[in-house]
Amino acid sequence: MILIPLDKNSSIPLFQQIIDQLILMIEKGNLREGDKLPSTRAFSEKLGVNRTTICRAYDELWALGYTESKQGGYSTIRKRDRKVVVTPKLNADLFDWNSHVSAGYLQLENRMNQLKMNENLNSIDFRRLAPDKDCMPVELFRKCANQIMLDQGSTVFQYGDPAGYLPLRDSIAKQMQFHSVSVQTEEVLLTNGAQNALDLVFRMFLNPKDKIAIGMPGYAALIPLLKLYQADIIPITIKEDGLDLEELEKAMISENLKAVYTMPNFQNPTGISTSQTHREKLLHLCERHSVPLLEDGFEEEMKYFGKNILPIKSMDSKGIVIYIGTFSKILFPGLRVGWIAAEKKVIEKLTRIKKAGELSGDQLNQAILNLFYEKGYFDQHVKKMHRLYRKRMQITYKALSRFIPAYVKYTKPQGGYTIWFEVPAEGKSEEDFMELLANKGVLVSPGSHFFTKASESVNFRISISCVNEEEIWTGIERIGLILKNE
């Protein structure tokens, strides 16, 4: 009979003590392959414990692969495969994974390494581009979540339509009609945010070496995604009024572009919004040269100065525009719900791709969000965000005019969160400038993140999304001191 000392006063459960000691006996060779363990009844009597404790220990030993058991028979020690022991020193060299990844992944990895951010909790951080967590309507969303769980709990946990929760698609179609975009429910596909939407579109039509035109400086997270697909990025200069259309047309003629990507509202990183005339000319160019236009409306709702300008999609009579929207920049970045609005045939293709890769969308969050819409909470929240960020941007403008020297160029957005700075280089390096700012307790996004090639000036972006009015004033004052002392 096996003897095992048990400590009934220990915080370790009795069944776990039995498991640990039997494993130790097996590993030491005291119990060998084929040896029988005592019956659960006999062992429980010998150790003075409940029989269910022994049963639980035996079940766990079987699950761990230490024993074999047959119905009505004894548990016996089984032969186990060689135990793998991993040491930190050997772990990195166990397998050469670099030789098994795609060329596109290696390009992505190089780019992502360039975008790493250093954390400094004591600094004023102008890098974040997401709604302030203190402004998120968590309680209202929780109420909607509770109601959905009560009313639809058995439904929303099932696999759903790959195109997304139908009532939310309908709500988005109606919302887009407020922006004069004529889109039907079947022309809307729900995605896991705007980045997932871009990924789906690129999966649909990008082959290695295909050329896609994007503005420079441009959306930093777009560049590694395009590198993953091994696409050739054709940079188009961003001017004060948006994409340089003359430069773009030359590229259309010479480069055989697969698509053009644009952010007409509050372009990231510059914050520039394009005029109605510019949008019309851009659409006309794409139509004339038969080049699809990807319109990223990531902050469509965040205009709080001046008159609203309609999305390019609102003028799309030939179905050449694929519109991408998201709730991440105005509601919850962690919610991961976005959408694509495009011609029905495009949506059908994208839905097949989504089904192949994801099977179904997140029905639960999509249903909660739809109820949030239906109750009027979304419109209520947008108005609150406009009041809050209009005030923050006004404070920003005052601080910029007071502290930033005249030789520095910066944008003055009509909405959104970001402002772009251009500083004449004059021998300064971006890295040195970032270090000077960090030493003053200010973190900004380096301009190099938004280019594929080095710029002739020192550039950086600030975002006011997650900083309060006092931090904005103090942070810009510190930036101004660095610029004046350079």
Description:
The protein has 486 residues and is of the alpha/beta class. The protein has helices at 14-28, 40-47, 51-63, 88-91, 103-114, 138-156, 166-177, 193-205, 222-228, 245-255, 276-288, 344-358, 363-374, 377-403, 430-439, 469-485; strands at residues 67-69, 75-77, 124-125, 188-191, 211-216, 232-239, 242-243, 259-262, 293-296, 321-326, 338-341, 409-410, 418-424, 442-443, 445-446, 457-463. The protein has 3 domains: 14-77, Winged helix-like DNA-binding domain superfamily/Winged helix DNA-binding domain (Arc Repressor Mutant, subunit A); 116-132 and 380-485, Alpha-Beta Complex (Aspartate Aminotransferase, domain 1), CATH 3.90.1150; 152-376, Aspartate Aminotransferase, domain 2. It has an 8-stranded mixed β-sheet with strand order 4-11-10-9-8-5-6-7, sandwiched between helices.
Q: Could you say what the CATH topology of the largest domain is called? A: Aspartate Aminotransferase, domain 2
Strands, count: 16
The main β sheet shows up as: 8 strands, mixed
Quaternary structure type: single chain
In angstroms, what separates the terminal alpha carbons?
83 Å
The CATH class label of the largest domain is: Alpha Beta
Provide a brief overview of the structure:
The protein has helices at residues 14-28, 40-47, 51-63, 88-91, 103-114, 138-156, 166-177, 193-205, 222-228, 245-255, 276-288, 344-358, 363-374, 377-403, 430-439, 469-485; strands spanning 67-69, 75-77, 124-125, 188-191, 211-216, 232-239, 242-243, 259-262, 293-296, 321-326, 338-341, 409-410, 418-424, 442-443, 445-446, 457-463. The protein has 486 residues and is α/β, with parallel strands linked by helices. The protein folds into three domains: 14-77, Winged helix-like DNA-binding domain superfamily/Winged helix DNA-binding domain (Arc Repressor Mutant, subunit A); 116-132 and 380-485, Alpha-Beta Complex (Aspartate Aminotransferase, domain 1); 152-376, Type I PLP-dependent aspartate aminotransferase-like (Major domain) (Aspartate Aminotransferase, domain 2, 3-Layer(aba) Sandwich), CATH 3.40.640.
